[in-house]
Amino acid sequence: MAILRSQLEQSEITIYIPPKGDYDTFRDDDHFKEKLKEWGLPTAKKEFWYKELNYQRLVTLKGYETYGNAGEFNTLVIEFQDGNLTCIHPAFLKEMQKGSFGKESLINLEEKDTLEEEAKTINTETVTPVEAPNKEKAAKPSKEPKPKTKKAPKIELPADKVHFTAAVKQFALVYNPFNEENDEVVVLENVQIVQENPIELGLAWCSHSKTLKKFELAPGDLLEFDGKVAAKKMGKGKDAPEDFIIDTPVLYKINNPSKINKK
């Protein structure tokens, strides 16, 4: 009875932010673990701690919402043991798994308030300007305006899932700050969105997931697949071998490729 009463009290004081409507769910265990790795959460866990300053509750991941111009950002949808759903940022849920969560937050909050008060005090102090002695300044030669370089027209990316053709260029490593490790990715070239008016993207990248690894990809392989594309520049790996480095900027990311066909 005491446990049930405690859960009821926690449920009543928890502030829930339920999903606005439909949200994405996990296709299978491989997809679930792939997303956990992307968010920096431990892949061996099925349950996670949701913490406040005076209590903690076990939750499970039900799915995630996507947002941003091309759906490149995620908000997690978690379920409490009483069945209530709420949304939470992946990085915040990751912080809640630390034993120091809560204590850290209070210390940081107090330090922040102190710094803000000091900044207000400094900004309200009046400063008397010092007049500089009059000196004749030498006339500077006028500079000719530099010609403006024309920027390439911005590509309007489709928000929905579309069909792609591409070729495997190479494999690369991207540093993941959530797990402080390098993640292997696939760099694609000659990427085209197949539609009535095809869109040429050039280079793009995607995670080298377990699904893709089943195809044993190699540079030069031609691919067809469905997926979503986002304007997200590929980062660099930390202490990556030369074979896993690409100097050319890769500005687009392919998310959740499916219906993959290797020619």
Written account of the structure:
- This protein has helices at residues 2-13, 29-39, 90-96, 103-124, 210-213; strands spanning 47-51, 56-67, 73-80, 85-88, 162-176, 181-194, 199-207, 222-230, 253-262.
- It starts with a helix and ends with a strand.
- It has five helices and nine strands; from the N terminus they run ααββββααβββαββ.
- The strands form two sheets. A five-stranded antiparallel beta sheet has the order 7-6-5-8-9, with no helix packed on it.
- Residues 104-116 and 121-128 have low confidence and may be disordered.
- The chain has two domains: 9-96, no CATH class; 162-262, OB fold (Dihydrolipoamide Acetyltransferase, E2P) (Beta Barrel).
- Strand 3 and strand 4 form a beta hairpin.
- It has 263 residues and is of the alpha+beta class.
- Residues 117-153 are annotated as: Disordered.
- Residues 133-153 have a biased composition (Basic and acidic residues).
